[in-house]
Amino acid sequence: MKATEVPAIAGAYLFEPTPYVDERGFFCRTFDADVVRSVGLDPDAFVQDSVSRSVRGVLRGLHLRSGAGEAKLVRCSYGEIFDVVVDLRPDSPTYLGRAFFELSGETQKTLYIPAGCAHGFQALTGTADTSYRIDRPHDPAEDVTIAHDDPDLAVPWPLPVASMSQRDREAPSLAEVLKQLDLKQLER
Hints:
Blueprint: E1 2-5, E2 13-16, E3 20-22, E4 25-27, H1 33-38, E5 48-54, E6 59-65, E7 72-78, E8 80-87, E9 98-104, E10 110-113, E11 117-123, E12 128-134, E13 143-145, H2 166-169, H3 174-180
Antiparallel strand pairs: 1-2, 2-10, 3-4, 5-12, 6-11, 6-13, 7-10, 7-12, 8-9, 8-11
């Protein structure tokens, strides 16, 4: 497994497994504590695993957590997604930086997203399962959502939106969220 820094988002990493492929399919390690530790992350910090299933065109996000924030490892375990990260840490050298990834069940790449970054994705295939490994228990009172189509972010979503939650449809702009929150709380 190889870890690569994400230049557009300070502290973000892309973990690429080395699959063993044969006539049966493939086998690969999707999490390796030693590799995670080698880039300065605590592998024992992750306390919750979750999974979402989406159909083609479903958009989830852009989400982040207030308070202490939430770091996470994100992987598309089946299908393919267009994944988006936005750095909202005011003291970060990549503040307001954006990064886009295609994550898929074929590659099993995992993206580490630091606390204080917004995250969202769109399913590109008929079914897309997205797995999350999160460093804090979920508290719905800390959920923050930013409009997926905010012109200041100009995210190039690859497909028309087939479906999204009511919360995501009604999300405020980035400017409104920045006015409402003291995002410095999101930094660790």
